[in-house]
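Researcher: Quick sanity check before group meeting.
Model: Go ahead. Protein one:
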Amino acid sequence: MDIAADKAGNLYIASNVQNRVFKVSPGGVLTTFAGNSCGGYTGDTGDGGPATLACLEVPDGVAVDATGNVYIAEILGNRVRKVSNGVITTVAGNGGGWGYSGDGGLAINASFHGPSFMAVDTQGNLYIADGNGVTRKVAGGIITTVAPYAGPMAVDASGALYIATNGMVRKLSGGVATIVAGNGSIGYSGDGGPATSASLDNPGGIALDGAGNIYISTGSDNRIRKVSGGVITTVADSNGIAGYTGDQGSATDASLRSPGSLAVDSSGNLYINDGGNLVVRKVSQGVISTFAGNGTNYSPDGVKAIDAQLTPTFISLGGAQDDLYIVDSKSVRKVSGGVITTIYTGNPLSVAADRAGNVYVSDSWDELNDAGYTILHRNIFQIASGVTTTALAGRAGYLAVDASGTLYVADGNVFTLSGGVITTVAGNGTSGYSGDGGPATSAGLNAAGVAVDASGDIYILDGGYCSYPSDCRVRKVSNGIITSVALSLSEPSGIGGIAADAFGNLYVSDTGTHTVLRFLGGVTATVAGDGSAAGYSGDGVPATSVPLEPGGIAVDSVGNLYIIDSNFRVRRVDHLVGSTPITVTTSPAGLRIVVDGATYTSPQTFYFNTSESHTISAPSPQGTNTVFVSWSDGGAQTHVITVPSVGTTYTATFNVPQYSLTTSVSPPGGGIISVNPPTATGGYNDSTSVQLTATANPGYLFASWSGDLSGSTNPQSLKMSGPRNVQANFIANPNPSPIAVGSQPASGTGTAQTFTFQFSHPSGWQSLSVVNVLVNNFLDGHRACYLAYVLSSNALVLVDDTGDAGGPYAGSLVLGSSGTIQNSQCAVSLVSAMGSGTTLSLTLSLTFQPGFGGNRIFYLAARDTAQNNSAWQAFGVWQVPFTPSGTISVGSLSLARGSSSSGTPQSFALTLTDVKGAGDIGIVNLLVNNFIDGRQACYLAYVASSNTLLLVDDAGDAGGPFAGRMVLNGAGGPIQNSQCVIGALSSAVLSGNTLTLTLNITFTANLTGNQVLYIAGRDAAGGNNTDWQAMGTWTVQ
């Protein structure tokens, strides 16, 4: 939750639980300002319309500019929205998956990794804390990175930016960074003395008043600190004890619980997000009071469900009696026999229950750590007989349970959890819309809801592309093949807005038309809502005649439909269906059928009454050469069936030819073509739609298609009505980007070394403007050896210890001159630069200072005269001699620098030593990623006691679940996740004090780019560990 105040004294509260932003007037009246609680992976819904009707994907930050415009950061939506005069628009972020791109271009095209804290200066420039660990700025619609760290932030009247991170508060003004509070250590000290000498305990919020005083919340010790005239004091909860006391008394005597964001109004009143107490506190002239919230967000247990106060966001039904389960803000409530009780508290996202009464809760919350990186907490819990256990750590999403008790989880992909085993059933790990007609696990999607019907078919609310009504989709997985269901939706709800009953009906809540729709094949019917979003007309009237703002939906075993209505109610619609299931299908499946004059895509199951008559037909031909052969009951192509007393399947068999697809590129090396679905043995079935995507290699642009495709639309679909031949044509990029090439040497050890760093530009090295070299243990200019060579002035500058690329600098040298420049990490001399053709070689003699010991990564970046940039790339690791602090240490890594094509196996040998002997080594970890993050990484753990190698799955939790495990030295394998495959030839050898692990690793295309190889180890007792050590870099092509 985040808060901000405007000049008029209104307070804005971003609720990442209810997916809304609330406004509290100076008089204490609370209203919804933005969001309709339809959060989740719903895409950029609502732009250009009323903010109160927009979908917000976990709003985690809020800021207000001088004119009253309100900015909202969606930490899961990866975008920033702006509300002006009640209308919402997107001002930053493309709404896609996690990423870090777009600097120098339009902010709306940029990628984020969970934006959170924000501030707006007096010129209207917007600053955003990006979960990539950087602070970004939007000015005139263009985005740039302004600081290599991120955290809570605020601006003063002069436009200076203040950022709290790493136990400090920094001030950025005119490109100069200074520390104004904190000494970098975590703790509580310094009151009454210089603020820069004080210890701060994980600052979680910062605000400035009109006089320039700085307020800092330190959530770990429950205090609010104030910096005035350079002196720091504590102004709220001076005892640091968590609690909820002190209203109407001195703020220093009050108790807070995990305070977070802060805001100050124009009168100097301080507002505190007292998050652990679920309230907002106000401090006015030193006196504290509760300004908003009552410390709870629901009514007490044991009351009648109809009388309960709710903020429902997700519902489900389960148990033998169809009990109703409700996600109600920070709790899960159960309604049984008309009485409501609480069964879980935390940060629930969704809930599901099976017929046996086992309840599953998906719990999800995010925080920004002290280094400015977004930490995601994801767990699924199981509640059985009142006991809560962890069913799955590291994953969360929207839940559903099928008739067999298998749990389905939609988290962008869809996977099942049964018997502790995870199986992906839909999604390839990328956000997008692709794959129809092919394997569901190869499809691009952004699953925001899931439902399973009685036959085991899976329906997925693909919510990542609902910017426009035509983009809203429901996908269906049947027998492992994914298709799009032929629906006509406006804007489906992103939280539980999909359900399927036991009778073949599919339900979707359509927030755009304020209705709930029922689909049976291609036939659509409205079952609730009159299309009006206003008011509440009461119960006991036809469901289609009431105003409705539907959110989550669920259906019970007899077909009653439950609907979350945004007026804080759960409503029920009773209806009747037939009882005999009649399935009409084709061989192969997916062809058209006609039932009672309506056209469907097979297979379809209908519920009819016994002895009724219905007409079925198989249109022919379908596609180009697919023709009808026969019905399974021997009937004519079009004939009447009489419904029997038991379920029956009628199958129309067709003859389907197959065709080949041949692809090529021109010129060779200009790029690649990817095909979805991939070509199967024997080719594609007649009339299959295939999507082809052309991807240009560096220095090229895609130009056009030729052969059986034409034009420049990319990607483009092709109908396989015969053998096809397609060529992708590429041209040289007239405005290419610069390229960071690498370092020589790329690995080694020592305190002094001459290095040559190379950069290139397809238009010639003269097109380069600035090249950067950053040496540190991670991508942070703070306390680093951070250099920039400016070609126009032929000068090399060394950034000082504060790490701001804009200065101040520790010194500069004109190339060719003698002398040395230095900061606390390194000294630089013997500087030269040489350009030849497309390549610039920068030669530097670096001497590393004693305090800079450890394994340091070389990061390179380049910018050209057109302001294109290469982005930071890791190109090597250098060990500055140091003495390990414990008994165990990382020794070496073979292939410390290299490259390989994806799909090509490589053998890496890594060593660790232990002064107590190799038998004392307990666990060794290898992490391959572009930074220290186990998610979407090749993350391995070797357990010496069992000689077992574990591969962490894509969720990245070291405690599991695991994608696989193998005993080394030839007894198992291979194992794989989406990023890498570990071959059976991997081994472990102990000799004296040294353990040598030899790992046969094949990186997949999902890990393309420059990656860092990190190694860590700890002894068997767990008392000594090496911490993560960067040991090499590898380029996956």
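Researcher: Fine. The other one?
Model: Protein two, sequence then structure:
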Amino acid sequence: MTSPSRRTLAHALRALAMDAVQQASSGHPGMPMGMADIAEALWRHHLKHDPATSDWADRDRFVLSNGHGSMLLYGLLHLSGYDLSIDDLKAFRQLHSRTPGHPELGYTPGVETTTGPLGQGIANAVGMALAEQLLAAEFNRPGHAVIDHRTWAFLGDGCLMEGVSHEACALAGTWGLGKLTAFWDDNGISIDGHVEGWFSEDIPGRFEACGWHVVRGVDGHDSAALDAAISQAKAETARPTLICCRTTIGFGSPNKAGTHDSHGAPLGAAEIAATKAALGWAHGPFEIPDDVRAGWDAREQGQAARSDWQRRFDAYAAAHPGLAAELERRLAGDLPEGFAALAERAVAEAAERAATVASRKASQESIAAFAPALPELLGGSADLTGSNLTNWPGCVSVTPERLRAGLGGNYLHYGVREFGMAAIMNGVSLHGGFRVFGGTFLMFSEYARNALRMAALMKQPVIQVFTHDSIGLGEDGPTHQPVEQTATLRLIPNMDIWRPCDAVETRAAWAAALQSTAHPTCLILSRQNLAHQPRDAAQIAAVARGGYVLLPAEGEAQGLRPQLVLVATGSEVQLAVQAREQLAARGVRARVVSLPSLFAFKAQDAAWREAVLPAGVPRVAVEAGATSGWREIVGLDGAVVGLDSFGESAPAPALFQHFGITAEAVAAAGLRVLGLDSPLKAVARHGQQIWLDQLSRTLVASGALQRWIDEHGIAGVTSNPAIFAQAFASDTAYAPALAQLRAEEPDLERRFERLAVADVQAACDVLRPLHERTAGDAGFVSFEVSPRLSRDGAGTLAAARRLWAEIGRANAMIKVPATPECLDAIADAVADGININVTLIFSPRQLLQVFEACALGLRKRQERGLPVDRVRSVASLFVSRVDTLVDRLLPAGSEALRGEVGIANARNAYALWLDRFGGSEFAGLRAAGARAPSCLWASTGVKNPAWRDTRYVEALIGPDTVDTVPDATMAAFAGHGQAARTLDTALPEARATLAAAARCGIDLDLLGEQLEAEGLAQFEQAFERLMAAVA
């Protein structure tokens, strides 16, 4: 039988590529068809490999840098005898197949690296060739060349357009990697067409300038020329070789060869048939004749080569048993025996030293601690050794001179080539025998980003040392100050990111990185010094978990649950520690969690994660970088202190202050999350709503009302004639509308109402989101009927109905007086579904009457078959006015009662409310969703300047109540008020105060009638001033 020709054997690769791409309906047939002859020359005549043992240590490495032509590699592996069946080829580009669209490490035996992003494959090949040369220098001995293999790479025009190829190939030339050979598929075609318009440089000249041996002008379809070129490459031992192969993309296709039409799409059934006919390939899809298979089968030759090497290695092991054992350990990727214990001791030593140093310096000290035990450590930096601090005592630089002399080293100077460095490191790791790390500024990780991603995709345990991690680097300014880099690195799947807070965490981060086996690690390190954080033994051990409790909240040891969790990384952990102290001074129990590695923390069991970040406890995160990623930790209700803008050029301390990344900012964020940033917000935690006792056009239009809501948790607004009289007198915003109304509306009351109703509507609209969010429990705006109707129940009801309809807002509330004449009007208004604010209540008797009127209205409404769940009413009990009158009437010797009766009266009112609405009498309405009328504390401004200006607010804080506060008192409480539940904590004392007042002749029911009359008179006077103001 005549053996098939070399061209026929190459046609087998072409046919498989055409068939597989056609069956998948996608792929790139052109490159495999164009490079098939080159592949045949290399794989059948020069490549040292064993299909039965694809991980043989001394095999040649083959890299398909132009990975889009993956069917060329799959065809080679299948035909050579690797464990890749014809059915695997038929499943090209299908889900979970062993033949993905681009070669992927771990899916297919014989694939050395994942390629596809152009240019990185050749950079990986540089790393592999470097690793071979360094291992040979370290382990080979005279007569024992156990590390002696070559690295081959296919690359296309696209690879050479990518800048990473310039970076890596320049280093390959400088290092003189004589066992690296690259085949340039010079077909002149890329996706957009013929490349002359965008790729015209002298590639052979460029490589020669980089120190490569270049074989020019090789016909990529001439086997003899290819053999000769490869022989030249093998003969060159001091320089890498580029073989320039002129090829035709889509070789053999009658209509698509030499065009971009064959580059990235199936040829089509008709064109495949025509191509096979032109090539003389008379076989169906995926059919390979036996003689062709036999011509490609490399198993016997590969087994012989591997067996020969094994015999030589056994002789080496006999002569140098220690070296042989060490080489086997390193090629297997195993750490030295006992390394875990050594790492534990190293972390403990860092804790004992308790050094305050920059984490980049702590990193250098960690390298120095681990390097003596790890001869496989291969470090380096992209021209920033003195800044990254990636060198260590005893490290030896890899230089061209040493490499030419057959010597190695363990420290690489990559020059300013971050992308090339990262891709070369991937190649070194893929080759095996080293634990590789490299350094640059975190900002410049952007240059290397795709190589970092590829390391994660390939599960390579490379280590990136990224220093100068934030605005903390200072004066170099925003071009060098990372903002989004750490956050976006965390988004890369299978990438561990450590941002340690001190030397202990830095040591632990290095220990974790060195012990990782299936993922890369980025160490995010500071330029500035970081304070040592004390820890006990359990906490030191817990650092490795990625997140742990650094400082428990006060009282946790006694079983108290923290009120807040502060989560931080890196330099901001110290800020969290300081913020915890500030919060403790405010009575807030805050826990500090250091979270140096979210990747490691998320790998912990649920019990650990819950123990560190307990559910239901609010969280604040702080990191000097982009904030959005932290929402995963703090949730939508938490807070993040960070930086979402570019930095500035200034000393680091000034920048942290300027951008608000301070302990004070963290503490303030914690208070906001807890609703304690304003004492007024803190009141809400005790179940009380604070309403602003003021309304004006400017209050709404200026945004001041919205700010009160946002910053202080204001939940409603009240108004009365006195408030509007003051507003009309002082607020110039009314002038245009008032001038128009004077011409249009002769009735003064209607003129006033038309002005005021617009304000009420605007305020209702501002408060509507709160009203809706609370299902109608908050967000009300109260407007009073004319005081002229206070003794006219029917008129009051008619006015309430008219104003309710005119305002037209579900969160409006109509204010009516608690006069006996208006009690029926109150009940009927509630029955109509009108929200009612009953005002001018001073005594227990009045209060109970109002309670009954409101309850009656709800019953009437229920009897009519109408819903009762959205009708709200409040009973406004005046406080300070009671004290003002009572204090004048108290006899001498009763000074202890001064200023106390009004508070006691309000507390007693709350007790009456509990009795009236807390039991079975209201149960039926409650079951239907009705809300009992709430007690509202009115007149809470302090009249006596000798008293604390917030005393009435502070004394009456309790659940299911409202406090309507004038703006001056509101501002005072916002500044220095103390929020604590006081309303029902001393009810017996309140009753005792009232009993003592009664013994002094104080009859609150009688005084209530007097105060009601005085109040009505004052409101009527204010109303008359209003009429004069709008006249």
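Researcher: One line on it for the slide.
Model: The longest strand covers residues 180-186.
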